[in-house]
Structures are given as C-alpha cells and as structure tokens.
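Entry 0007
Protein: Aldo/keto reductase
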Amino acid sequence: MRFVELKKAGIDISVVGLGTNFVGGHNLYNNVSEDAGIRLTKTALELGINYFDTADAYGLGRSEELLGQVLKGRRSEAVVATKGGIQWFEDGSTRMNNRPAYLRQALEDSLRRLMTDHVDIYYIHWPDNETPVAEAVGEVMRLKEEGKVRAIGVSNFSLEQLKEAVGAGDIDLTQLPYSMLDRAIEKDLLPFCVEQGISVAPYGPLAYGILGGRYGKDFKLDPKDWRNGIPLFKPENFQENLRKADALKEMARTKGTIPPNLALAWLLHQEGIDAVIPGAKTPEQVIENAKAADVLLSGAELDAIGGILG
Ligand SMILES: NC(=O)c1ccc[n+]([C@@H]2O[C@H](COP(=O)([O-])OP(=O)(O)OC[C@H]3O[C@@H](n4cnc5c(N)ncnc54)[C@H](OP(=O)(O)O)[C@@H]3O)[C@@H](O)[C@H]2O)c1
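Output (structure tokens):
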C-alpha cells in the first residue's frame, strides 16, 4: 500500500482507504450482514489499509461499534475518520444538528462506540443551515484542543459554507461527492480546496457501483434500493452513465486493470485528492480496490478518459 501525508494535519493515510457505509448497515436496504462487514474491514487492515471512514449515523451507531471491535488492540495502526451532526431519534427519523452541545455529545458517543479516546479526523457530516458555521466549527476546534480530534473536516458544505468554516477554524479536509460520473465539484469547490490546501475526500468514488463495471443495460434497482434517490441512477441519466462505464471498462481491459481501479486511480490523479475511500460489500472487493494504489495513468490516458467523460 502507498501512503500519503494529509497536507495540513500531518497524518499518514493509505491512498486507498475503506468507506464503511455498508459495515453495520447505513441504509435500511441493500446492506451486508454484520459478519460480512467485520470480515471486509479485517481484510482491509490485513492489506495495510489504515484509513477507515465511518459516521455515527451509519447504522445509527452500529458501523462505529463494529469498526471499534475490529480495531480492538490495533487502534494505533488505524486512522479513524468519523462524522457527527446528524441526530437520530427512537423512531429512526433523523435531522441535521450542528449545535455545539450536540456535536460535543455526538463525539463523546462516537468515542465510546469506537472504544477510543480520540478520532483522527472528525467531520461535521452535513450543515444544518441553522447553527452559525463559526459556532459549530468553534466547538470542534475546542474538541481538537482537548486532544479528542486530530484533524477537522466538513462534509456536504457549499462553497460559501466552506469559506465560513475556513474563516472559523483549521479545516483539514472536506468530504464531497466526486467520481468520473459526478464532477460537479470541479466548478468551484475543488479549485477552492486546492488553493487553500484542503484535502478533498471524494465520496461515491465508484458512482455507487456503476463504475464497478458489472451493471449492464438490463440492470434494474429494486424499488426499495436507496440509490433510486441519486441523480446518477435516475432514468434520464442512467443509460448515458452506463454507456460511459462501458467505454471505461474497455479502456481498463486494454490497460490490464479492472474498471473500479481505473475509476479510483483517476481520482487519485486529480489535484486536491490525496486518498479514496471506496465502499465494499465483500473482502474480494476490498482486495481488488486496494490495487488501485498501483495504477498509474499517463497524460495520454487521462486525456482519453476525458474524451469518454465528455
Ligand atoms: N459524507 C457523506 O455524506 C457520504 C455520503 C456517502 C458516502 N460516504 C462515504 O464514502 C464511502 C464510499 O461511498 P459509497 O460506499 O457510498 O459508494 P462507492 O464507493 O461509490 O460504491 C460502492 C459500491 O461499488 C461497488 N463496488 C465496490 N468495489 C467493487 C469492485 N471491486 N468491483 C465491482 N464493484 C465494486 C459495490 O456495489 P455492488 O457490489 O452492489 O455493485 C459497492 O457497494 C462510503 O462508504 C462512506 O464512508 C460519505
């Protein structure tokens, strides 16, 4: 595995990490079993992957608990990124909450579930559009001063909100949707982050499975599948995305790699991206995705990909 230093925080992370959306079951449908989640997380650790991305909201705390179990006795080997700011209730409903007292309690709860005294990266998961950004970031800064957080991130913040956050504290990272098929952040958020030296952690790097190269023209999502809500899967976009994924699959074949690794390597070649956190449902996918760290793309190949993506 290859490692990179997170620019501002000075933390070494594997360039391929693991997104644990499915570990412990983030979604109500299309989850992996707890055993499978534990196995695939252990596989990542054995491969030398040290960068684990979770959130308190994934499985309403369960993802953190399972990650904590896997890391028991090996915590020092791992860089743990988690998120707070989505509050949930007994009936399963959620709301964004960035109030300082809530964020403090959320982090304390995350530390307990992860069985650790600090997290390496703490993100405000979503802006709540009520709490002044400076108040929310100010509280996470205090948590950092207390040694409970090593690096601070914000996720799903607009450019304006990110600018406010930067004005209020040391923002090391931001987590945003970004993949070959979703390049909206290239317009203004990514250039701003590059200018500021903020590392961008792209989520949905495999376009939630489309760039895995296994979906054909007849692929249909189950009506209960959460991905029905994502624009990439909307009928008006899906066939075009599949067409691009097919062309990329052919390019991956010619290059002697596999489609997800081409997609992850492409991200790793973009300025501002230090590492990727693909989600996986099996240990085999974790093993495959780890190899993206070794895929080098030439200028001509990047141009050819640009031609396919349009
Ligand atoms: N900050 C936020 O708001 C936010 C939002 C979403 C995600 N995230 C984070 O970002 C991480 C990554 O996003 P994601 O997991 O949602 O989506 P993703 O990484 O784009 O896609 C994951 C899916 O791709 C497929 N896949 C993975 N490896 C593959 C392989 N080797 N070959 C073929 N298919 C493969 C699997 O789906 P199938 O096997 O079903 O095809 C897998 O479920 C999450 O785990 C989470 O940590 C953050």
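Curator remark: Residues 3-210+259-295 form a domain with the TIM Barrel fold (CATH 3.20.20.100). The chain has a mean pLDDT of 95.
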